[in-house]
Design brief:
Strand order of the largest sheet: 1-2-3-5-7-10
CATH superfamily of the largest domain: 2-enoyl-CoA Hydratase, Chain A, domain 1
Bound molecules: coenzyme A
Number of helices: 10
Structural class: alpha/beta
Number of strands: 10
Strand content: 15-25%
Length: 258
């Protein structure tokens, strides 16, 4: 049980719902505490194969960091807040299991940053994305300047960052920020159907895909070396033996995660 999150585990898919609908699911200190606790569970519980992150209600995914917590901060406190948010979102990005952002409405500021830290995103047709921090005399602090450039390119990202503009779901689709746009009532079903396919694959190999793809954006790593190591790690698994044997025997592989 979490104060600001709902979580349900079904068929290996953990659905996390940010649950502060009266504040459009804004990210306050408690949400970050709860997100870190649920991330501990995601990293450690083998029954969780993949994760959906969504927002409560039909209006917002997350409308940003909770602005009401900002006003009394010193420079040092503001930097600690940003670093803490970045660390949490890096744990999402580096999770060894797929985390899918299900964007059910406004994804603004920290909400857009949370969405972008997920491995990929799908959106309902009412979703809106933006980094409106310059309206507040601020810039994004939870990785938004970095991931927006990575995901949609520098020109589009800088226009959004500097203008505080918002884009709708279909523009997000065209920009490559989301993989699919569906009617709101179909959003979770679509997410589950995508994750059921991924959950049927070899879990170690799935985790290694995430690690290698993340290395593209990590200056401290050589992505090609990460790929070679991951390839080797997969060779050590029983699932690799099962997958290759099943192919040769013309049957469906049954993976155990070992
Ligand atoms: N932080 C704190 N509270 C927030 C919030 C945020 N980021 N976003 C929305 N809320 C609160 C509102 O203050 C309001 O609370 P109240 O009912 O106690 O007054 C409630 O959520 C509903 O929001 P409201 O603004 O009345 O809804 P709306 O439909 O008129 O507008 C938005 C929706 C998303 C356009 C508007 O809420 C908004 O611009 N939010 C801030 C977005 C932002 O700047 N995010 C970046 C933060 S760094």
């Amino acid at each position: 049980m979490y104060a600001t999150l709902l979580s349900t585990l079904e068929n290996g898919i953990l659905t996390i719902t940010i649950n502060r609908p009266d504040k459009l699911n804004a990210l306050n200190k408690q949400v970050f505490t709860d997100l870190n606790a649920v991330l501990d569970e995601i990293y450690s519980n083998p029954e969780i194969k993949s994760v959906i992150i969504t927002g409560s209600g039909q209006k917002a995914f997350v409308a940003g960091a909770d602005i009401s917590e900002f006003s009394s901060f010193t420079r040092e406190q503001s930097m600690a807040l940003a670093k803490g948010g970045q660390d949490t979102f890096l744990r999402i990005e580096n999770a060894p299991k797929p985390i899918l952002g299900c964007i059910n409405g406004f994804a603004l500021g920290g909400g857009c940053e949370l969405a972008m830290s997920c491995h990929f995103r799908i959106a309902s047709d009412n979703a809106k994305f933006g980094q409106p921090e310059v309206n507040l005399g601020l810039i994004p602090g939870y990785g938004g300047t970095q991931r927006l450039v990575q995901l949609i390119g520098k020109g589009r990202a800088l226009e959004l960052l500097m203008s505080a503009g918002m884009i709708d779901a279909n523009t997000a689709l065209q920009y490559g920020l989301v993989n699919y746009v569906v009617p709101q009532e179909e959003l979770l079903a679509k997410a589950k159907s995508i994750l059921e396919v991924i959950n049927s694959k070899a879990p170690v190999a799935v985790g290694k895909c995430i690690e290698a793809a993340n290395a593209v954006f990590d200056e401290t790593k050589n992505g090609y070396a990460v790929e070679v190591n991951g390839f080797g790690d997969c060779f050590d698994t029983a699932d690799m033996k099962e997958g290759t044997t099943a192919f040769l025997e013309k049957r469906k592989a049954v993976f155990t995660g070992k």
